[in-house]
Amino acid sequence: MHFATALRRGPHGRLLLALRDSHIACATLGVDTRAARAALFAGPAGLTGLAAALLDGVWRESPAAGPLAVASLLALVLAAACAVVSAGRGRRRRTTPGHPDEGLCAAGLEAPPGTVTGLIGPAGAGKTMFLDAVTGLRRPPGGPVRLGGADLGSAAPHVRARLGMARTFQRPEPFGSLSVRGNVLVAAEIHAMTRETPGRAGRRGWRRRRQARREAGPVADRLLERVGIAGYAACPAARVPPWAARLLDLARALATEPRLLLLDEPFSGLPVPAARSLECLLRDLAAEGVAVLLVEHDLETVMGVCDVLCVLDRGELVSHGPPVQVRADPRVHEAYLGRPAAGDGRPGAPVAVA
Predict the structure, then answer these.
(1) Cβ contact 127:295 at 8 Å
(2) Half-sphere exposure (CA, 13 Å, Cβ side) for 161?
(3) CA quadruple 187, 135, 118, 112: dihedral positive or negative?
(4) Which position among 16, 66, 95, 232 has the lowest Cβ density within 10 Å, counted as fewest Cβ atoms?
């Protein structure tokens, strides 16, 4: 009983619970979910079978101990192979030296570092689908996706996450079996275990990753304070208010130290004070060199926080530039502001779209 409790509260127990709650969120944090699942099944099964076979052979001298031990060893080899494949796929791809664009370039949209780029569009424009394609959750319809000079091609979500890409979801996916702090803590631990460090193949790299995992606790506390939900740290993530769950999604993404941060409607449902604080946080992140791509349904929400505004309509960019210039673009009025809002007879009144 004590061992089970210690395992649940440890980093591996948190990872198991996170995988059970949302394998998609784990993949966007850098976990190779296929290899992890294979290792979870093959590893314990192999160890249990091997122990049973050895004990049975020693105590009873059973002739079946040999074949059972061989089968158990094969299961262990399978688990080890999955771990090796996961490590090989998880290595960061080298980017082109001196490449001028360290941000995102996909389907004609660029999100350079140090800026907040907004992406808006009418209902059905494909904004969330675009984020899914960029993060590898959906096959892109066409065109390259580049990050820091590297063509991501068909890279899996966990590979893109390890390259420095993080995202939030339109519908937050917290790990409900963990506390609010546990959600951010497991994200920091995943980043510590999967990120590339100098001397990764040797003992020095292992020590640095282990030290980074030990420091995950203070990192989680600092991020919860930064996004403004430190008061919910001990609460179960499944029971926090929707606006706090949205900020938790952001804190969890920041735990991976992203170069590119993709936010899917982060202002939705936030109280006014929290929304103002989020605006300041996004500007601070951009000042730190992070490329922020912000998807929202409300034009006025992004006007004051974005450096560049892009309008997506039916999967195509119809306008981009400074927010004031984009708002005055006739194509934007046609695609996004073309009809009055409900109850408002003024032509061109903004229409809230999802």
Answers:
(1) yes
(2) 31
(3) positive
(4) 66
For the chain, the helix, strand and coil percentages under 3-state DSSP, each to the nearest 5 = 50, 10, 35
Rounded-to-integer distance, Cα 177 and Cα 9, Å: 11
- pLDDT of the residue at 153: 78
Identify whether the C-beta of residue 22 lies closer than 8 Å to the C-beta of residue 175.
Answer: yes
Q: Which two tokens stand for residue 95?
A: 């980017």
Instruction: Give mean pLDDT, residues 182-188.
Output: 95
The architecture in CATH of the region 93-164+258-354 reads 3-Layer(aba) Sandwich (3.40)
Domain boundaries, the chain: 2-90, 93-164+258-354
DSSP string, 158-208: HHHHHTTEEE--SS----TTSBHHHHHHHHHHHHHHHS--TTTTSHHHHHH
Cα–Cα distance list, 151 to 115, 129, 262, 353 (Å): 21, 19, 18, 32
Lowest-pLDDT choice from 34-38, 93-97, 165-169, 277-281: 93-97
Counting beta carbons within 10 angstroms of the beta carbon of residue 128, is it exposed (0 to 12), middle (13 to 18) or buried (19 or more)? middle
Q: Which residue matches tokens 């960061």?
A: 92
Q: Which amino acid is at 172?
A: P
Contacts (Cβ under 8 Å, ≥6 apart) of 337: 299, 348, 349, 350, 351
Number of other CB atoms surrounding residue 93 within 10 Å: 16
Residue identified by tokens 């939900």 is 229
Partnered with residue 291 across adjacent β-strands are 260
Binned at pLDDT 50, 70 and 90, residue 244 comes out as very high
Question: Is the model more confident about 300 or about 95?
Answer: 300
